[in-house]
Automatic annotation (TrEMBL):
Protein name: ABC transporter ATP-binding protein
Subcellular location: Cell membrane
InterPro entries for the chain: AAA+_ATPase, ABC_transporter-like_ATP-bd, ABC_transporter-like_CS, ABC_transporter_ATP-binding, ABC_transpr_CbiO/EcfA_su, P-loop_NTPase
Chain ranges of the ABC transporter domain: 10-239
Signal sequence coordinates: none
A Pfam match: ABC_tran
Key words of the record: ATP-binding, Nucleotide-binding, Transport
Gene Ontology molecular function terms on file: ATP binding
Homology family: Belongs to the ABC transporter superfamily.
Chief subcellular location: membrane
SMART domains: AAA
Length: 315
């Protein structure tokens, strides 16, 4: 992708990062990221997620290629308040307490004192650290230190948020609050990129999926396209009262794979199939009492890709 032909907010142009030992963290990556998108960055251990995020926020200089934000190159000189980032490994100021770590992050981005105070309290509440705001950071647990880092990334009005496994070590409620907040920021026009192994969680919030393998892009597309390409079946469960006669069972067998067990049938159906078609077959014979339709999500799609490529899968 040429710089001038890329109309997106962030243009990653044939970017590679080779570490000093000769290992490529990422190789020849080109993507265009638009404002308002929440992108889930996924892939097995060692796929290149952290490397990509570090390059994206200017912490590592690509060994080949360039990254443009609104047509300007992102590198170590990019004003840090444009980008809110939280690394997997901790980068917090150990000589400040929890509140000051976040507050001075806001002040350094140029935020006025009153707003910085208000935003600091808001993000500390969001990550569940309000009660610990006066505590020294070295007296926090690993998960709590990570929350300080996330709060620092969120406190200023960054136009790009880059978060490397932000939900690792967070409890379920805090993780969900955080993803909700990131969704809102994306809706307000921020570009949000989140790497995660918790595919069930990011599934509910992301617009796009960027899947890496061995430093290269396997796929970058909308979540809907990704799911449609890799998982085309849904599971329909119908509970009923009464008995299904052989004629109904035969008709069901012609439509979909199904199992029957204790007045409940489970069918694997195509995504586009109308549930009414199934109900009409059994309705003359039994009373339907419950219908449930389960769509496979990001995790199932990821496992399907991994299976296709004969890989060991992530958890
Ligand atoms: N500092 C480094 N020096 C040399 N090689 C590195 C360094 N950091 C990462 N690598 C290598 O680069 C590749 C990509 O690693 P990276 O940490 O980006 O993967 P990841 O997808 O973030 O993995 P994980 O899910 O385990 O965090 C791996 O082969 C890794 O061994």
């Amino acid at each position: 992708m040429e710089k001038n032909s890329c109309k997106a907010a962030i243009c990653v142009d044939h970017v590679s990062l080779k570490y000093y030992n000769g290992v490529y963290g990422i190789r020849d990556i080109s993507v265009a990221l638009n404002k308002g998108e929440l992108i889930a960055l996924i892939g097995a251990n060692g796929a290149g997620k952290s490397t990509f995020l570090n390059v994206l926020c200017g912490l590592l200089q690509p060994t080949e290629g360039d990254i443009y934000y609104d047509k300007k190159i992102i590198d170590v000189s990019t004003p840090f308040h444009q980008i809110g980032w939280s690394k997997q490994t901790h980068a917090i100021d150990w000589y400040l307490n929890v509140y000051d770590n976040v507050f001075f992050g806001a002040r350094m981005s140029g935020m006025k004192k009153k707003e910085a105070k208000q935003r600091t309290l808001e993000v500390l509440e969001l990550v569940g650290l309000l009660e610990l705001k006066d505590r020294d950071v070295d007296a926090l647990s690993g998960g709590q230190q990570q929350r300080v880092q996330i709060a620092r990334a969120l406190v200023h009005n960054a136009s790009i948020l880059i978060l490397d496994e932000p939900t690792t070590g967070l409890d379920a409620q805090t993780s969900e609050n955080l993803l909700n907040h990131l969704r809102e920021r994306a809706n307000d026009g921020v570009i949000v990129i989140v790497s995660s192994h918790d595919l069930n969680l990011v599934d509910a919030f992301c617009d796009k999926v960027l899947l890496l393998k061995e430093g290269k892009i396997v796929t970058f597309e909308s979540k809907q396209q990704f799911l449609a390409r890799y998982v085309d079946k849904e599971v329909l469960t119908i509970a009923y009262e009464g008995d299904l006669p052989p004629v109904a069972i035969q008709q069901l067998e012609e439509i979909a794979y199904f199992v029957e067990n204790d007045h409940q049938i489970r069918l694997e159906i195509a995504r586009e199939m109308q549930v009414g078609t199934i109900i009409r077959i059994i309705d003359p014979y039994v009373r339907v009492v419950d219908i449930k339709r389960d769509s496979p999500g990001l995790r199932e799609a990821y496992l399907e890709v991994a299976r296709e490529k004969g890989e060991v899968t992530q958890g």
